[in-house]
UniProtKB/TrEMBL annotation:
Family designation: Belongs to the CheD family.
A GO term for molecular function: protein-glutamine glutaminase activity
InterPro entries in alphabetical order: CheD-like_sf (IPR038592), Chemorcpt_Glu_NH3ase_CheD (IPR005659), Cytotoxic_necrot_fac-like_cat (IPR011324)
Gene: cheD
Name assigned to this protein: Probable chemoreceptor glutamine deamidase CheD
EC number: 3.5.1.44
Organism: Anaerocolumna sedimenticola
CDD domains xref list: CheD
Free-text function comment from the UniProt entry: Probably deamidates glutamine residues to glutamate on methyl-accepting chemotaxis receptors (MCPs), playing an important role in chemotaxis.
Gene3D superfamilies with a match to the protein in the record: 3.30.1330.200
Keyword presence, Hydrolase: yes
Biological process annotations from GO: chemotaxis
Reaction it catalyzes: L-glutaminyl-[protein] + H2O = L-glutamyl-[protein] + NH4(+)
Alphabetical list of Pfam families matching this protein: CheD (PF03975)
Entry keyword set: Chemotaxis, Hydrolase
Amino acid sequence: MSVMIKVGMADLNVCAAPEALTTLGLGSCVGIVLYDSSTKTAGMVHVMLPDSTKIKNNENVAKFADTGIDALIGKLISIGANRNRLIAKIAGGAQMFAFNSNNDMLRIGERNTEASKLKLQSLGIRILAEDTGLDYGRTIEFYPETGQLYIKSVGKPLKIL
């Protein structure tokens, strides 16, 4: 059985098989997994906001899509991952409250997903799979041994990406 390493909100961590990573309660937040299948190393960041440049108090790099992904790559390389082999899987970015508005502050899930994708694209990291949007929260677990991302949601069947 693998050791499960928890990643909190606005937090990031890395591991190598047989360890695994999990983050709970992704609502509008996005969980981004970066993975090197050759070394079976992986990292996960739980981002809350799309863009660190729009916020004054932005010391916590893991809180933002732009800085969190960069920090995660650095940590992954430090445990032996190859930057050129990294691939991504993402989940979360839900619209947790029903409303009719184009107010950007309310569209935070969508903006987190968008920012995460743009950042990965700018770094040349391919997104292999995603489970984003809709209106429910997710808990995710990633197993570097198999490269599988388990997505658990209340009242929904288990998804494996």
